[in-house]
UniProtKB/TrEMBL annotation:
<dbReference type="InterPro" id="IPR012349">
    <property type="entry name" value="Split_barrel_FMN-bd"/>
</dbReference>
<protein>
    <submittedName>
        <fullName>Pyridoxamine 5'-phosphate oxidase family protein</fullName>
    </submittedName>
</protein>
<keyword id="KW-0560">Oxidoreductase</keyword>
<feature type="domain" description="Pyridoxamine 5'-phosphate oxidase N-terminal">
    <location>
        <begin position="12"/>
        <end position="129"/>
    </location>
</feature>
<dbReference type="Pfam" id="PF01243">
    <property type="entry name" value="PNPOx_N"/>
</dbReference>
<dbReference type="InterPro" id="IPR011576">
    <property type="entry name" value="Pyridox_Oxase_N"/>
</dbReference>
<dbReference type="InterPro" id="IPR052019">
    <property type="entry name" value="F420H2_bilvrd_red/Heme_oxyg"/>
</dbReference>
Amino acid sequence: MPIPKELSLTPEQLDELMLSTWNMRIATIGPGTRINLTPLWFGWAGGKIYTFCRGQKVENLRRNPTCTILVDRNERFPELQGAMFQGTARVLEDAAAEAADPHLEEVRWQMGRKYAGGHGEPAEPRRNESTARGRNWRWVVFTPEKVVTWDNFKLAALRRERQTGT
């Protein structure tokens, strides 16, 4: 059953969710048909999701760029807000690919502010200096093809509307 459009996040609410929430979860297709589901820190710019990651996720995305990302917050049903993105990811394989991306520099600063102090270091915002290294440490850029959002705070108003017929 599709989510009623009245429960969807507005574009401004989606931006706020994406810029303030710390963790996303990315589902990639692993070897065979196994799904690899992993939490990651992320950035949001130009309607795309950026993450710096390593390991099996990168290998999976090189083999099959199709993936799903979930960003949500709150735990109680009436307070759930989130967005599910289905689309494809592109692994930025080297410094030249990183430099050519039109939004990566913005994301580096955004993530440097968002996660300042997140690893126990001083909480002063600074540029995220991560760059391609080794075999599997890479920036990944995800381009959504389908987005589904929900804001369960809107449920009460929707119920009242349906009950009164207005």
